[in-house]
Amino acid sequence: MTSITSLHRLVAAIGATTLILSGCSTASNTATTIAPATPAVVEVTALDYAYSGLPTEVKAGTTFTLVNTSDTELHEFVAVRLANDDTRTAADIVGLPPEELGALFANVSTVLLAAPASNEVIPAVGDGTLTEPGRYVIVCAIPTGADPQEYLTAAATSEGPPSVDGGPPHFVQGMYGEVTVTE
Fold it and tell me: Model confidence over 49-81: pLDDT tens digits?
């Protein structure tokens, strides 16, 4: 199934060659609206194959942090800005054929936060701050079941996303969401 592997590589390569850690979570995706008067810090929890605490709306300049509650999986928070005229839902987007999804993600700026089971977040691309107003799809593209230490070791010497054993990306398991950034 070349498409899933290629897609994971495209999504992980969005930021550059510094993808060090990543992972995803499950549980239900819990959405709330947070629109403070000034930019805030929003803590999102990565469960096995879902995000908890992911708001539906934030002000530009809001910084996200990621807490990983998994005992076994790496998790990541990849924020990809969508085109202004893109009206598809996050579910529609993650359901695209891998080639279309890869093309969509390859041409946009991202924020990537990664967290191993130890919860020590590493800002692999950006610092977690979303500054540009618009809609963002949030995904975790770590292969399901990938060995965390193998992934981290491979990432340390990789010129791009590491090639490790594992199943489909976590977003296939439901680890995705959407955030609108307002001015």
Answer: 999 999 999 999 999 999 999 888 889 898 999
Q: What is the pLDDT of residues 101-116, one digit of tens each?
A: 888 877 666 777 778 8
Mind giving me the DSSP string for 109-175?
-EEEEEE-TT---EEEES-SEE-S-EEEEEE--PBTT--HHHHHHHHHH-SSS------SBGGGGT-
- Per the structure block, which two tokens stand in for 65? 């942090």
In the three-class reduction of DSSP (H, G, I as helix; E, B as strand; rest coil), residue 5 is classed as helix
The structural domains of the chain, with segments of one domain joined by +, span 2-182
Spell 19-47 as b/e; 16+ CB within 10 A means b. bbbbbbbbbebeeeeeeeeeeeebebbbb
